[in-house]
Amino acid sequence: QVPLVESGGGSVQAGGSLRLSCVVSVYNGCMGWFRQAPGKEREGVAVINSADSTTYAESVKGRFTISKDSAKNTLFLHMSGLKPEDTAIYYCAAERQWSLVCRNRLSGGMETWGRGTLVTISS
Q1: Which residues pair with 76 in a beta bridge?
Q2: Model confidence over 70-101: pLDDT tens digits?
Q3: Mind listing the pLDDT tens digit for each residue in 34-51?
Q4: Cα–Cα dist 68/116, whole Å
Q5: Taking Cα atoms as reference points, which of 63, 119, 61 lies closest to residue 92?
Q6: Checking phi first, is residue 39 left (phi over 0); if not, alpha (psi -120 to 50) or beta?
């Protein structure tokens, strides 16, 4: 496995924006962002399939955008309208095999995971 490395986390005030990045150089399949808030279980935030079709958790729809730059082998999560409840460690995850069926990956089960990057939103 080639490690996934997230970057872009930090601290911002409510209403602000952040962009997370993850280098996904050898991965061509389902990719996604997940998060784990203090004292809570990890949850899916957004996933994208090999044809760039996306699926979002209800809690982030309209505020977050998942995308990938294939030329730069990078997965992004653009976050805007951030709320204190978005505070969490955010993880990038990816799979090698090309796939169009990724909606179910919001519940987890991804092949390879990054170590996470902390996002803190203050009120």
Answers
A1: 21, 67
A2: 888 999 999 999 999 999 999 999 999 999 99
A3: 999 999 999 999 999 999
A4: 18
A5: 119
A6: left
